[in-house]
Amino acid sequence: METDIIFEPLKFRTLTVKNRILRSSISGRWDNYDGSGTQARINWEEKFARGGVGAIISSFVPVSIRGRIIPNYATIDCDERIPFWRKVGEKVHDYDCKFILQLSHSGRQQDVGGVENLERKPLSSTSSTEPLHGFPCQAMTLHEIKDTIQDFADGARRAREAGLDGVELHSANGYLITQFLSSGINDRTDEYGGSLENRARFLLDIIRAIRKEVGNDFHLQFKISAIEHNNAVTFWEKKGNTLDESIQICKWAEEAGADAIHVSVGSLFPHPLNPIGDFPFEIIRKTYDAMISSGIYTFRNYLLFRYWLLRPIFSLLWNRTKKSLPPQPISGEKVEDETIKKLLDAYQGVNLRESREIKKHVNIPVLCTGGFQQASYIRKAIEDGFCDGVTIARPLIANTDLAKHFQQGHDLPPVPCTYCNKCLLNVIENPLGCYELSRFDGDYEAMMQKVMSVFEPNL
Ligand SMILES: Cc1cc2nc3c(=O)[nH]c(=O)nc-3n(C[C@H](O)[C@H](O)[C@H](O)COP(=O)(O)O)c2cc1C
Ligand code: SF4
């Protein structure tokens, strides 16, 4: 029998993952205010390990308290956090699944600042206010840059001491490292701003500092927004980094000691292209209130979301880049259900083209994120050299056992993810889970039971 490339081991320099399906980062607010973790997070990660993915990339894990997006995410800012992450790793390892911790810093992109930022502005590469929500910020001094680089290195050391299998730098989607990389955001005039070489210095310094701290035999990958589309919504801003610039950054990062690249898109989060899909106003009008005091434009946005007469203004801005996307480069097996077929055609493999271009220029494995949920499509993407493995977030929230479905020979899960993004827009206020009622045949109680199951071990 021919072997299925999806279930062939994925070999990184110092780490082997049993298959090509990795769970992409998905953050949920269920830890303690001080950054200590809870049983709910262990239960959450166990679901995916049990469901058959080869590796889990953790939630956004702040390397310092000032670098949180929102309170109630488990952190890795001090040695006291090591035992919790050891527990998470051990649980996941029970299923022969690897665990990669996402080392992160929000910079100015802070949805709900904690008490740590009540009396001071969040740190960034720039002092310019973030343009969509109006988050204020303060450009880091050279001293603060050096301290933050060390925070990342300490985070990697703690991940290693916790027995985890590697780390991923969250250098995508508008968080602190993007704020340095981006030609649309970084307006510094010192050695960390200006030319591409200078803008990449922060990321490369972090990679080198991690290598110095943990040595060469610990897996280190980074996530990058291959194209930033920094003006996707706020059209008056600069475009941000191009694919060619990102390819150069990837080449430098490989030289500096990175073991793999994870390809994403967009210089903010969420972005019209990430996670690609709908923008459900009926959800955001109920959850965005948690952010109203966070930025100077948040009240304006809340009105745009709240009143249906104003919504077309926001929809126009949100969808304009999505509409100009070229067709997806490959397609999977024929799908009978017209609705699902349309969704897959529109959203599956949204970053594949960029992933293939990056892969042509580096010698380390390339992972790609964005819309994957069909076995035949994923198989073809890997076989045709677009990527070495895929990372999946929402289709795994919808079906945590997606990998097992593929292994049993199914091309799609029985009730696929609809890319409605209700999980995403609920997460600011509510437990992370699938909130698409149509997937539960309209049974609200059944949906809630599934969402709340994260608080019950072994469900
Ligand atoms: C609720 C939610 C939370 C997310 N949190 C993170 C995160 O903390 N770090 C990150 O790099 N990406 C995060 N993402 C992006 C995903 O990891 C993934 O790259 C993106 O959703 C595209 O994949 P998908 O189409 O399979 O969902 C999140 C996505 C969702 C839906
Ligand atoms: S709410 Fe459910 S169906 Fe909708 S995008 Fe999230 S996981 Fe998919």
Q: Please give the radius of gyration in angstroms.
A: 20 Å
Globally, the shape reads: globular
**End-to-end gap:** 35 Å
N-to-C series of helices and strands: EEEHEHEEEHEHHEHEHHHHHEHEHHHH
Number of strands: 12
> Uncertain segments of ≥5 residues (pLDDT<50)?
none
What's the name of the CATH homologous superfamily? Aldolase class I
CATH-defined topology: TIM Barrel
Beta content comes to 5-15%
For this structure, what is the CATH class?
A: Alpha Beta
Q: What share of the residues lie within helices?
A: 25-40%
The major pleated sheet works out as: 8 strands, parallel, barrel
Proper CATH architecture: Alpha-Beta Barrel
Give keywords.
8-stranded parallel β-barrel, two-stranded antiparallel sheet, 12 strands, TIM Barrel, 36% helix, 459 residues, binds iron/sulfur cluster
What does this 3D model show about the protein?
By secondary structure, this protein is α/β, with parallel strands linked by helices. The protein has a single domain (5-277, 327-417), classed as TIM Barrel (Alpha-Beta Barrel). 36% of the residues lie in helices and 11% in strands. It has helices at 39-50, 82-93, 142-161, 176-181, 196-214, 243-256, 281-287, 298-306, 311-323, 338-347, 352-361, 375-383, 394-398, 402-407, 422-426, 444-452; strands at 10-11, 16-17, 21-23, 55-62, 98-104, 123-124, 138-139, 166-171, 219-225, 260-264, 366-369, 389-392. An eight-stranded parallel beta barrel has the order 3-4-5-8-9-10-11-12, surrounded by six helices. The longest helix is centred in the first third of the chain and has 20 residues, at 142-161. 53% of the residues are buried. The structure holds flavin mononucleotide (FMN) and iron/sulfur cluster (SF4). Flavin mononucleotide (FMN) is lined by residues 24-27, 59-60, 102, 170, 173, 223, 264, 274-275, 369-372, 392-395, 423-424, 427, 432.
